[in-house]
Amino acid sequence: MTLLDGKAAAAELRGRVKERAAAYEAAHGRKPGLAVVMIGEDPASQIYVRNKTKACEEAGIRHFTRFLPATVSQKEAEGVVEGLAADENVHGILVQLPLPRGLDGGALLAKIPPEKDVDGFSALNIGKLSAGEEGTVACTPLGIMRLLERYEIPIEGKRAVVIGRSNIVGKPMAMLLLNANATVTVCHSKTKGLAEICGEADILVAAAGRAKLVTADMVKEGAVVVDVGMNRGEDGKLCGDVDFAGVEKKASYLTPVPGGVGPMTVAALLENTVAAAERSAR
Ligand code: GUN
Fold first, then answer.
1. 260 HSE (CA, 13 A, CB side)
2. How far apart are CA 80 and CA 166, in angstroms?
3. Closest Cα partner for 48 from 279, 269, 266, 270?
4. Known catalytic residues?
5. 64's torsion region: left (phi>0), alpha (psi -120 to 50) or beta?
């Protein structure tokens, strides 16, 4: 089994992004800019936001982080996003999810112009992905594709199974694999016969948010297994959706948690931000 080392692959990708950011700055006299809007105090989100801003600094991307209290009104939050939408120093806007109760996420995200939508959550970008057209793709699925590319893992003609149908990971992941000519099955909490379906997968992406859901008996010998899970185990330790100790005996490639998909998500966000800046200059 070969570890899919997201930390190393992300460092390489961040290096390429840094070169593009420097070239953009040399040509346009300002850095690419990313605005992160963090509402409330969700502890996991706070860590993600800190990782994102730190990665921006290292890549030569200017960041504008806005911290808003959980009690912020819908109108105020939308006003902040509208301000960032109008700011020419800001090329990408990301509203960190999940949002505190009481806010209308759909209405808030709709204030992000599609060209600044570095999360790929807008209707336009989702539509482009579905149509197989070039657009901005959600960071976690994009990061996973970059990881598979880095290890030269073939996708065309393979059977891919995605567990999870979220708008952030499962659905765009399935679309990307389909666009890369895999035969794709999407499983979810109501799926019957999950183990049998997973057992057919050459490429298995677990994004269900359930600790150790994928066990060795569900995995085909030689499968490529990507673990998107970020769960807190009973022992308080971070663990994925895949039972690593069991599955590593059957998989040909496997992502660790942490150090697999997580770093690729951040690197993909930086790539999307620089790409948005480059597009804005055209
Ligand atoms: N929360 C967890 N993952 C993500 C992501 O990719 N984008 C945003 N905006 N929020 C998240």
1. 27
2. 26
3. 266
4. 52, 96, 119
5. beta
Per-residue pLDDT of the chain (282 residues; tens, 9 = 90+): 999 999 999 999 999 999 999 999 999 999 999 999 999 999 999 999 999 999 999 999 999 999 999 999 999 999 999 999 999 999 999 999 999 999 999 999 999 999 999 999 999 999 999 999 999 999 999 999 999 999 999 999 999 999 999 999 999 999 999 999 999 999 999 999 999 999 999 999 999 999 999 999 999 999 999 999 999 888 888 999 999 999 999 999 999 999 999 999 999 999 999 999 999 998
> Considering only CA atoms, which of 117, 138, 100 is closest in space to residue 35?
117
- Mutate which of 81, 95, 96 for ligand 1 pocket (most atoms within 8 A of beta carbon): 96
Record the tokens describing residue 157, joined without a space. Answer: 């003609």
Q: Is 202 helix (H, G, I), strand (E, B) or coil?
A: coil
CA of residue 97 to ligand 1 center, whole Å: 5
Nearest CA to ligand 1 atom 6: 139
DSSP helix/strand/coil, 47: helix
Q: What are phi and psi of 262, to 5 degrees?
A: -50, -55
Report the 10 Å Cβ neighbour count for 223: 23
Q: Could you tell me if 183 and 161 are in contact, meaning their C-beta atoms sit under 8 angstroms apart? A: no
Tokens 């035969």 correspond to what residue? 183
Closest by CA to 214, choosing from 192, 234, 194, is 194
Predicted TM-score (pTM) of the model is: 0.97
Residue 226 burial (C-beta neighbours within 10 Å; 0-12, 13-18, 19+)? buried
User: Which of 119, 166, 271 to probe ligand 1 with, by most ligand atoms within 8 A of CB?
Assistant: 119
Domains, in order of start, for the chain? 29-113 (3.40.50.10860), 139-262 (3.40.50.720)
CA distance 202 to 220: 7
